[in-house]
């Protein structure tokens, strides 16, 4: 039954694309442009833009073509949509930006392109308070975390639970993220809402390599703190 329903949805989506109307919608509220962007179909994106598709149209979940392309890591589609005027800081109905979606799903080149287009690395999702950096930290995306930090992301921002990118990385045992944050000057003594330092969090979670790295960083920071 599930396979039959999937086939029906595919037929409906193809029917929307085949009708030639750039403003047509399928049962999910997707326009042909959104469908093409979601699947990484650059030729389709070009075709629907040429036919006057609304680049800011949203499906029933509040997703635009850019958000779908960013989530899927479709770099060329993202570049084409940005060139056509898509907003690099666009958000979905859940308040997630294209940058957050790309960062949290490991799409480094898309993150780089969005930042170059003016995406704000410090925008926070309104419910959880996540930033692109916090999401990257949670998912262990060290290279993306480093890229965001080089682009000015604030490593001290806290989510709605009181966690920073560093406390999340410590809790998850993501050494590469911890290294990126410390290299960018994020204090190793950051705490969570309960007052636990990142070092304590990592120790309680059993992440030995992270504990060692944070302990060394904390020791190195002490003389500098004493000088002040």
UniProtKB/TrEMBL annotation:
Signal peptide range: 1-24
InterPro entries linked: ANKRD_45/46/60, Ankyrin_rpt, Ankyrin_rpt-contain_sf
Keywords tagged on the record: ANK repeat, Signal
Record bears the keyword Signal: yes
Keyword Signal among record annotations: yes
Pfam family, one: Ank_2
ANK repeats: 28-60, 61-93, 94-126, 128-160, 161-193
Alphabetical list of PANTHER family matching this protein: ANKYRIN REPEAT DOMAIN-CONTAINING PROTEIN 60, USHER SYNDROME TYPE-1G PROTEIN-LIKE PROTEIN
Descriptive protein name: Ankyrin repeat protein
């Amino acid at each position: 039954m599930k396979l039959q329903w999937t086939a029906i949805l595919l037929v409906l989506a193809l029917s929307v694309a085949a009708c030639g109307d750039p403003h047509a919608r399928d049962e999910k509220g997707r326009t042909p442009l959104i469908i093409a962007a979601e699947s990484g179909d650059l030729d389709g994106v070009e075709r629907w833009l040429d036919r006057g598709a609304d680049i800011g149209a949203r499906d029933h979940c509040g997703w635009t073509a850019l958000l779908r392309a960013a989530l899927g890591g479709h770099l060329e589609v993202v570049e084409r949509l940005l060139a056509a005027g898509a907003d690099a800081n666009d958000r979905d109905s859940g308040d997630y930006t294209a940058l957050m979606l790309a960062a949290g799903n490991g799409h480094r080149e898309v993150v780089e392109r969005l930042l170059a287009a003016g995406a704000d690395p410090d925008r926070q999702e309104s419910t959880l308070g996540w930033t692109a950096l916090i999401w990257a930290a949670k998912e262990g995306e060290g290279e993306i975390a480093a890229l965001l930090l080089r682009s000015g992301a604030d490593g001290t921002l806290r989510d709605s639970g009181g966690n920073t990118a560093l406390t999340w990385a410590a809790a998850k045992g993501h050494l590469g993220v911890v290294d990126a944050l410390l290299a960018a000057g994020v204090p190793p003594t950051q705490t969570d809402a309960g007052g636990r330092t990142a070092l304590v969090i990592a120790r309680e979670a059993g992440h030995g390599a992270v504990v060692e790295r944070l302990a060394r960083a904390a020791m190195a920071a002490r003389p500098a703190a004493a000088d002040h």
